[in-house]
Amino acid sequence: MKLFNKVEFVKFVRNNDEMYLSNVEVDGKDDNFDYDMKVVNEVFDGNGCYCIEWGSRGECDFFKVNLVDELVEWNKVKEDENEFRYMRDDIGSDYLDLCFEEEIIRCYFLIVEG
């Protein structure tokens, strides 16, 4: 996984057509770099692993996680009982993308101060 500083992370997400950091109206007054930096700065609690989680209705959360705990949780989802459980492998190695269920997609990033 790539190590991002906060500014690089926000730029990366804003330049990715599949990602967003908050539930703002596209092209609305809060759909901008400064607002996304505000979201990151409000959550940022030191260097570590952070997650963007999306739900089926487009809702979005950004939070710090313990990656080991997240992997243990993902591993508990039975693949044969949940057809939506997968690890995306077509995105390169900048971040980790896991789908837990039909309605829960989480992307993990390593973010440091700077």
Kindly list the characteristics that best describe this protein.
single chain, alpha+beta, 3 helices, 29% strand
What does this structure look like?
The chain has 114 residues and is an alpha+beta fold. It is 26% helix and 29% strand. Strands 1, 2, 3, 4, 5 and 6 form a six-stranded mixed sheet that branches. The mean pLDDT is 89.
Order of helices and strands: EHHEEHEEE
Please report the distance between the alpha carbons of the first and last residues: 17 Å
Q: State the major sheet.
A: 6 strands, mixed
Shape, per Cα inertia axes: globular
How much helicity do the residues have? Answer: 25-40%
Mean pLDDT: 89
Total of DSSP H or I helical runs spanning 4+ residues: 3
- Let me know the number of strands: 6
Global Rg = 14 Å
Structural class: alpha+beta
Stretches where pLDDT falls below 50 for ≥5 residues? none
Give the DSSP E fraction (strand runs of 2 or more residues).
25-35%
TL;DR of this structure?
The protein is an alpha+beta fold and 114 residues long.
